[in-house]
Amino acid sequence: KFTGHPLVGEARGVGLIAALEIVAPDGRAEEFAPGKLGAGLGAHFLKNGLISRNMTDAMAFCPPMIITPAQITEILSAVEKSLDAFQAELTT
């Protein structure tokens, strides 16, 4: 779902364990120290009710095995909202 987003370099996962690699907008990589993008996106995640594991510029997710499909949809919506808000912040 997120592989086409401009801030996502790679989306990977197995089962319920997943991670998103966060990359700088085109041509701006030199502006960001390692971990800055991950920390910025992590702040947006918290605003949208998500807790993730920030691994420098990769965000890891590991929901409980008893998660419902509706809860997964809620998480994916919050991730999308956070990515879009962070991208808007970076481009203004």
Automatic annotation (TrEMBL):
<keyword id="KW-0808">Transferase</keyword>
<keyword id="KW-0032">Aminotransferase</keyword>
<dbReference type="GO" id="GO:0008483">
    <property type="term" value="F:transaminase activity"/>
</dbReference>
<protein>
    <submittedName>
        <fullName>Aspartate aminotransferase family protein</fullName>
    </submittedName>
</protein>
<dbReference type="InterPro" id="IPR015424">
    <property type="entry name" value="PyrdxlP-dep_Trfase"/>
</dbReference>
<dbReference type="InterPro" id="IPR015422">
    <property type="entry name" value="PyrdxlP-dep_Trfase_small"/>
</dbReference>
